[in-house]
Amino acid sequence: MLLAVNQLAAQELEIRIQVNHTQLQGANTSKFEELQKSLTEFAANQIWTNNVFKPEERIKCNILFNITKEVYTDEFQATMQIISSRPVYGTGYDSPMLNILDRNIQFKYSEGKTLIFDENTHSELTSLVAYYVYIILGFDYDSFSKLGGTPYFEKAQKIVTTAQSSNYTGWKSFEDKKNRYWLAENLMNSVYSPIREYSYKYHRLGLDLMSTRLVDGTNSIAEGMNDLLKVHRQKSASYLMQVFMDAKADEIVNVFSGSTDQAQQNKVYNILKEIDPANINKYDKIKKK
Description:
Elements: E1 6-9, E2 13-20, H1 29-45, E3 59-72, E4 75-87, E5 94-108, H2 124-144, H3 150-162, H4 180-188, H5 193-203, H6 214-234, H7 239-257, H8 262-275, H9 280-287
Helix pairs in contact: 2-3, 2-5, 3-4, 5-6, 6-8, 7-9, 8-9
């Protein structure tokens, strides 16, 4: 069964962590209940930034560990899904920021183990959670100020550097082109800075304006796509572009499918078709009346 969700109020995060062990036959339920509780308390009680968040400002995020195999006693393979969102000014709507599925998760956990994170020492389970918390924070800060997430992406990159000693996959450049290493690399690589800068245009100058200045907000989102196109033509198939578009594809369709500006619709559609062909079936709705 899917274990009940623990939820605590972190200073920065409104975080929910779930541990699903349905694929394990005869699993020790109490162990995974304890793991879920320990992970939630670890993520919620850690101080991740120097800023003070009001309760309504806390970043909404969900992390799901789906345990797929017990490799050895107290050592598990899993997938990890990371979802986060941010509120849109003047609305009750939360805009999706991240929806990442990490399939290369393996860690050790035994009952009674205290979860501790030290940025100078690699510990697989807490390093995984800390890495994605910093990614969540960085994406959120980028959406409110231009390149505002840099300090948190630097923290994520430091975790990657420390993790080079890990025996588990997902941390090294040669293992895959779309893993934790490459996401951190892309986020700190100036070649991809326009993607991060577009996040600010998209959210702060786009979505946040649309409740009062619909045309200006929509135009900001549309015009900023030229930046994405330039990056794509310089460095196609980047992991950062995929992460951004995976989170935003449905929302972009909603923004433009009801537009009366057909020229703008056509321009946006042609850019999306080039930079994100995997979601072309979704983008077809932009052109359908």
